[in-house]
Design goal:
Layout: E1 21-22, H1 39-46, E2 55-57, E3 66-72, E4 78-85, H2 90-100, E5 105-109, E6 115-121, E7 131-137, E8 142-148, H3 151-160, E9 172-173
Antiparallel strand pairs: 1-9, 2-3, 3-4, 4-8, 5-6, 6-7, 7-8
Length: about 180
């Protein structure tokens, strides 16, 4: 008898192709056609670590979204994490640079060595003994600010708690073949 050739994969046994999908779940031909994330849903898309059930909505009606979270770290320290949507990008970047002072800004690069985000760090605690840092996307109007009792606590919160969506994925999920 002739050797049997295997059956071709069925629709249920082969991975399905996915169409590109905007951040809000709407289908699209290209992510370039998706609107920029906005409001609370957009903020949660940009920062997957934003747990709305554990945080407080501090936004005002008609204003960009703002959520504040009190988080206890493994070492017992408590930090406040503020996720914010801004009305515009460039003026906010300038304001953070002004507020934190010269030499306080570092950059986070993409895998292609493009600037993805900036991080500003206070070089000393504020008048109430709190340390602060802010990270904002370089080309998009979203930031996160962390305030805590020590520099180590705010750095730990930034590296261990806050999740940033890659700037290449901010508008949605690309399709797959």
């Amino acid at each position: 008898p002739e050797p049997r050739t295997p059956d071709p994969p069925t629709a249920s046994s082969s991975p399905e192709a996915r169409e590109p999908t905007c951040w809000d779940g709407s289908p699209t031909e290209s992510l370039k056609d998706c609107p920029e994330p906005s409001g609370t849903a957009g903020l949660a898309w940009v920062f997957p670590s934003l747990d709305q059930a554990a945080c407080t909505d501090r936004g005002r009606p008609g204003a960009p979204a703002k959520w504040v979270c009190r988080v206890e770290l493994d070492n017992g320290g408590i930090v406040k994490v503020r996720y914010r949507e801004h009305g515009s990008t460039r003026p906010r970047l300038a304001r953070f640079s002004r507020d934190y002072g010269p030499g306080s800004r570092s950059t986070v690069l993409t895998e292609r060595d493009d600037v993805e985000r900036y991080v500003w760090r206070a070089d000393e605690p504020d008048g109430r003994g709190r340390w602060k840092l802010t990270s904002m996307y370089a080309e998009h109007p979203w930031s996160v600010t962390i305030v805590g009792p020590s520099r180590a606590d705010v750095e730990a919160a930034l590296s261990d708690l806050v999740e940033f969506r890659s700037s290449r994925r901010l508008l949605g999920r690309p399709g797959s073949a």
